[in-house]
Amino acid sequence: MASTRPTLIARRLRRGAAALGMLALVAVATSGCSVDEALRMGMPQPATKEAPTIQNLWIGAWISAWAVGALVWGLIIAAVILYRRRSHDEALPKQTTYNVPIEFLYTVAPLIMIMVLASFVWRDQSELTALSSKTTHTIGVVGFRWSWAFNYVQEGVHEVGTPNQKPTLWLPVNERTRFQLTSPDVDHSFWVPAFLFKMDVIPGRLNQFELTPDKLGTYPGRCAELCGVDHANMLFDVKVVTRPQYDAHIAQLRAQGATGLFATGRASTKEGVTA
Ligand SMILES: [Cu+2]
User: Fewer CB within 10 A of the terminal residue: the chain, N end or C end?
Assistant: First the structure.
């Protein structure tokens, strides 16, 4: 005796789900990602105190996208299987048009989804871009065609790179640092992937943010805004070190004569940036 239709459909749906699961496993296994990386959805290991907030927002967005995707794909696959044409002489079923409640549903449901996602972005972005009233440590970042200069504002020394010689920004670990971004020429974007954070560097504007690097190490950074012929060479490194190592590096810069601050391209000094 053959199985009844509902059990047959259930079995096919289960097989389909198992095949999709296997496919996802193979995709992760062959992508070269470790399980840890796959769980972070491709984000690098976070190296600041604030980075987990960004990582959670990213993972949360993926989970909700997958949940919505699974619901939509599930409904499509179920409809294809349950309402498929079963014989050649089967008539076309009654077509549904101008169904106001359904049209209302698929207008309002995406709106609600977007509003929920936007509210999380709003909450985290406000927290991440808030500036503390008292900052102990300030770095002036100057993005120019085509490299970077880093001004150690309190210490009064600087470091400048060239397209052939990438500069290194030294930061003391576990100290909240304010970054002041300026450009004397065109738009650039200051991006350190391990900080899970980037911000545009705009001529005539002062963009600021604060982060607390909390893991010792050297992290690559780059310009994330196509800015001209040598954009690809706007590379730099960030070295997160202990306070004594940081002080030793500052003393070394001073001994090399890299005193004073590199020109930021801004005329105004009211936010504390020296032009
Ligand atoms: Cu650039």
Answer: N
